[in-house]
Amino acid sequence: MTIVDNRWEHGSFFHWMSPSAAEEADYPWGEESVLCGSGRDAFRVLIEHGRAKRGWKRLYVPCYYCQEVVESLLSTGIDVRLYPDGPQDVIVRGICPRTDNVDLRPGDVVLRVDFFGMRGSLHTELLPGIETIDDFSHDPWSYGAWKSNADWCAFSLRKTLPIPDGGVLWSPRSHHLPPQPPVTPEHRLISLERLAAMALKTEYLNGKPIQKNTFLELAIASEVKLSKGTPSGMTEWSKDLLNCFPTLSWRQRRRANYEAFAEVISGTPWLRLLHSADNKKSCPFSAIFICDNVELRNHIRDRLILLNIYPATLWPLDEPAISGIPQEYLDFSRKMLSIQCDARYTCEEMQRVAKIVIKSGDNYLNKHQEQPTQQSNPVSGGV
What we know:
By secondary structure, the chain is of the alpha/beta class. The chain contains eleven helices and twelve strands. The chain has a seven-stranded mixed beta sheet, with helices on one face. Strands 9-10-12 form a three-stranded antiparallel beta sheet. The chain has a two-stranded parallel sheet with strand order 1-11. Strand 6, helix 4 and strand 7 form a beta-alpha-beta unit.
């Protein structure tokens, strides 16, 4: 797709990408799966099934996690608790999440998360009577998704694919699955709104006389409504689109784009770029970097937005759904930014964005090195 120069932007939600170069690619979830309207719907369907059929009482989620998803989990009525795990723990402890100091007992379920597609694997020791759920939203075709030893996998598909809705649920250990939910009339309309927003965004990028607010308002309104009400199945059109995209090639392009960004940003003294725990088995969802302080992060974020580059915070924790998140995780979320590096972009565009990040940070530090820092609320993102 040729984008008109004055319409170029980076980030935000997917525009419509014509599925003209499909590959024959298997899915980690195979035929025995439940396709839902979103990742949150997949979780809600699974939790309701686990409480009714498997005796689930408590669900442990990482301290660092999307709070919109946590709110959705709480809505099922299960007792949701926190355990210490987050992106910084991947750096310090290596690949696998740890629950050594968690008082687990039969009836408990542990949610393991492949943060930013950088873990590669989520294997942990499986304890008697304790079930596990793996979330691979940031890299659905990862080695970890193919080789998961979890009781269940549940995650979003629309974070890495240009589809208007979609989440998946399956059991790597061949447990009996909950029934496939029907597509609700409400969800069908929401998906159509999102599809319209994607199509209008494409025409906007192509230089057609489309007002930006037209598709933004559709996208924002549909996002607010997504995963509300009764859990839904995935729409027929999103199911069909799953078989139309070159998913493996797009995954490789995402890795190449990340590496192009990393090459330019490497050595910048006031930020730290996150790297995969296992470069052979993982593929970063985006370029994630941590700034030295909150003020610097906020300045870079605001400057990028002025230049039509839309970073995200994955995830804001200042208003948590469950209290008691340790300070280290709050600090991480306040200092981080996520720069999309998916197949919409070229390596040259990623290098261009990296240079803008460096220039923005250098300009700020030259003017404010001696200024005190304050905390502020970051930009949101959900599953």
